[in-house]
Amino acid sequence: MQGKGSFLAGDESAVDRRKSLALEKVRDAAAEAVFCGVTKEEILAQISGVFDGRADQHD
Hints:
The protein is an all-alpha fold. Helix content is 58%, strand content 0%. The protein has two helices and no strands. The longest helix is centred in the middle third of the chain and has 22 residues, at 14-35. The chain is flat and about 40 Å long.
């Protein structure tokens, strides 16, 4: 069906695009957290928790 699906620019795969979008979200969330007074250590502790399986919520 024409016009259905995702548009991927250039040679970027769907996985690469999803990774890029995820990194943009992390950057934006970190910038917002810093603006609200969250420390670098607090941000890193939350991110480490995700990698270590301690996160309360994540997608």
